[in-house]
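Action item from last meeting closed. Structure (209 res):
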């Protein structure tokens, strides 16, 4: 099967990007990363990309126009949001509909938006986790693909949960991307399919729970 071409969009540390790259290198994911694009010139994820000789782009002013023109010059099958802290405009979401994945640090549809770990602790939740979903024009609200869940312990804080949730992310994001790269995840008309069947509810990853 031909390798798909992807771009990574990030705004910060890029540990998910690094983890995805490691999983490409060890043969788990069959995919190329064509470029890493960031709206933050100081994002450590850009340094990680440069070390690996992956082309990088920094979005400066009219970031959505700049992003659009960068993407136009590439032949991209998949856009991977990995801690990208900007909202993609409808123009780009519509153009790449069904070809954009995001990972969100909560059990969506609960806790959309930012500061998820802090809010989960404040609300005395029993469970927390991460979700991979397709990106649509509704923020953190596209069809859910896979979730990983953990039980919150009494002594957990926003910081400890952040670490635990990252561990979940390092397992579910590469898995979803692998599925996409292998043609198991796709969009058909208004439906999102896994292995040919409509995704009704997210697959539960129980490996870390
Ligand atoms: C992750 O927690 C992800 O869920 C969220 O942004 C964070 C990015 O972390 N969208 P990193 O930059 O990959 O370490």
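Sequence:
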């Amino acid at each position: 099967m031909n390798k798909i071409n992807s771009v990574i969009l990030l705004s910060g540390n890029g540990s998910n990007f690094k983890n995805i790259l490691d999983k490409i290198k060890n043969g788990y994911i069959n995919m190329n990363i064509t470029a890493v694009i960031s709206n933050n010139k100081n994002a450590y994820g850009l340094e990680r990309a440069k070390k690996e000789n992956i082309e990088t782009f920094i979005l400066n002013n009219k970031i959505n126009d700049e992003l659009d023109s960068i993407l136009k010059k590439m032949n991209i099958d998949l856009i991977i949001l990995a801690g990208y802290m900007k909202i993609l405009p409808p123009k780009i979401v519509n153009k790449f509909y069904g070809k954009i994945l995001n990972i969100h640090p909560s059990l969506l549809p609960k806790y959309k938006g930012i500061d998820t770990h802090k809010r989960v602790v404040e609300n005395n939740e029993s469970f927390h986790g991460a979700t991979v979903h397709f990106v649509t024009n509704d923020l953190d609200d596209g069809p859910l693909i896979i979730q990983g869940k953990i039980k919150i312990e009494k002594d957990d804080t926003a910081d400890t949960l952040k670490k635990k949730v990252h561990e979940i992310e390092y397992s579910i994001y590469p898995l979803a991307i692998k599925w996409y790269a292998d043609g198991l995840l796709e969009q058909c008309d208004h439906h999102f399919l896994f292995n040919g069947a409509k995704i009704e509810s997210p697959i539960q990853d129980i490996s870390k729970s």
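Note appended to the action item: The CA atoms of residues 23 and 149 lie 22 Å apart.
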